[in-house]
Structures are given as C-alpha cells and as structure tokens.
Amino acid sequence: MEKILDVQDLKVSFHTYAGEVQAVRGVNFYLNKGETLAIVGESGCGKTVTSKSLMRLLPEPMPAEIKKTSKILFNGKNILDMKESEIRHLRGADISMIFQDPMTSLNPTMTVGKQIAESLIIHKGLSKGEAFEEAVKMLKLVNIPNAEKRAKQYPHEYSGGMRQRAMIAIALACEPKILIADEPTTALDVTIQAQIMDLIKDLQKDLGTAVILVTHDLGVVADVADRIQVMYAGVVIEHGTTDEVFYNPKHPYTWALLQSVPRLETENKDVLYALGGTPPDLIKPPVGCPFAARCEYCMEICKEVMPDATRISDTHGVSCWLQDPLAPKVEVPEVLRK
Ligand code: SF4
C-alpha cells in the first residue's frame, strides 16, 4: 500500500485567557491511497482539530499553534512548510473537506451548480460552460434527481440530505486524493445517514479517493472504515484495522465506546451504556494515563506514568498499562464477547 499522508508528532495548542489548551498532544498516523481511516472519540478529544490541521484550517485570529516539531507529509511534502499559495491549491484540488452542517458551509447566495463549478474553474482551468456541465454530472453522480434543474437552484431549495450530497459533489469535483468528512451525517436522520455513508463508500471505490472519517459514533464506521484510530484527551489511545478494533479491542475507553453502540443481542434494548465522568482539563493534562479518572481498571501506575503504545500486531497498537506483562489479567466486558 502506498502512503499518501504521514502525520508525525502532531501537537496543536490554543492560547486562551485561561491558559494553553493542549488540544492535540503528539499524534502519529498515516493514510494509504484509496483507504478509509476513521478517527473516533468524544467531543473535545482532538479529532476535529487533528483533521483541520491537515488543511491548515485552524481558526484565526484565535491563536492556534501547531508546534514546530510536528510534520504533516502529503506525498512526502510537509504541509506545514507550504506557502499560502500552495495551501490554497492543495485545498480543493488535493484535499477536500465536508462538514457536519452543510447549511453553514454552502453559500446561500449562489446556486449549487455555480458552487461546484467554481472549484473546477479555479483548480482545473475549465471554462464557465464546461464547469457547469461538469457540475451537473457531479450532481447526477451523488444521486440528485433532475440534476440540470437542481444545479440552478439555491441551497435553501434543497432538503438536508440533498444539501449534504451537494457538499460531497463540491468536495469531490476536482477528484481530490483525500476527502476529510467531519461528522458528515450527524445532522441527518438515520435513513439519510445510511444513504450518505453508502454514497461516500461508492464514490470512494469509483474515484479512488482516500477518506478520513471523523466521528464520535463507532457504529457509523463499522461498514465503511478500513482502519480506526481512537482518540482521547488529544492522544491516540488505540489504533487498528476495523476488525481488530471491533473484535479484539484492548483499551478500556474503546470498550466503553463499543458498549455505547446499540446491539441487537443486548438484553435491555431501552438502556444504552453511558460512560460516566468527563475528559480531563487539557490546560493541565494529567501526567499519567489521560483516561485514569474514568477507568474502572485504573492502577497506581496509571495515575503516575503515561503508558507507551504496545504493539499488538503490525496494524494494531494500544496505550494502556493493562498490556504490561505484570498487570492483572482483565477480560473484555461480557457484552463485547457476544
Ligand atoms: Fe485504565 Fe490504566 Fe489502561 Fe489508563 S492505563 S486505560 S487507567 S488501565
């Protein structure tokens, strides 16, 4: 497999009045051509900051800082060293992003067709007429009915699901190498959610785009992702293939996330597992395991020393003291063994 993206020691902080919030604290991962990587975790775990850093889209003027030692290599070139003009070309042409709420991302004053055509004119040098024809093709590709007519309509004339499809059409118009989808289905109802995920999967197969899927919901990624990385308090606590994370999870936080996914075999189907407590304050992150305060298996060492990543297989790693040979043997919760 050919690596298209290689993120090394990514550290991102926000300078606030209360102090420096260390939102992402030394994250490493890679993305192969054409695969789907899911980044999963609760709100505030650093997954969105990580994905926005890849396009250098961190908010300004709020002082966000990507530390100098961090590297984001796209086809071997460090995005963090690129000039503004190179970054502008990269966004849209090489890496595109779709967001949770298409209504705030689409331009309400422009027809959807023009919004798709715009990036084709800028990045591919097409004429207005050619770009509009391509825009109609893209709308057909994302299954918008009456694409010619719909291309001339404004976002408010689209339903929620159609707006998200239009966002996908804009993001994929220039056939980017990487698509970042940040909670792409959260604002949609369940049936439309499934349709949008299927659409992303099909388009990925047709266009060969690699996808980074950012979500708080492990249930959403089971059918779509090739690999999963679980983040907590700004660090990756477990990563592996989808099978490894679903069928051989090793970290208590991954167990908690998996238990909160609805299962048919759960006895009491009205009650879903909820993890108690809240993530740590990232102005003063804990010195030991960041999950210690919420972990029912916490040992003394967990509070004092951050666990290193233990290699379970070539593709599976976990940061938890339970993997230490001297740690007591702990079984995966029973509900996950069924
Ligand atoms: Fe729990 Fe300790 Fe593992 Fe952290 S290192 S998840 S506190 S057992």
UniProtKB/TrEMBL annotation:
All residue ranges annotated as the ABC transporter domain in the record: 5-258
One of the protein's GO biological processes: peptide transport
UniProt topology in membrane: Peripheral membrane protein
InterPro entries: AAA+_ATPase, ABC_Ni/Peptide_Import, ABC_transporter-like_ATP-bd, ABC_transporter-like_CS, Oligopep_ABC_C, P-loop_NTPase
Protein keywords: ATP-binding, Cell membrane, Membrane, Nucleotide-binding, Transport
Subcellular locations according to the entry: Cell membrane
Primary location: membrane
Position of the signal peptide: none
An MF annotation (GO) of this entry: ATP binding
Pfam families for this protein: ABC_tran, oligo_HPY
Keyword Lyase (UniProt): no
One of the record's GO cellular component terms: plasma membrane
CDD domains linked to this entry: ABC_NikE_OppD_transporters (cd03257)
Recorded superkingdom: Bacteria
The family this protein is said to belong to: Belongs to the ABC transporter superfamily.
NCBIfam families: oligo_HPY
Protein name from the UniProt record: ABC transporter ATP-binding protein
Protein's organism: Oceanirhabdus seepicola
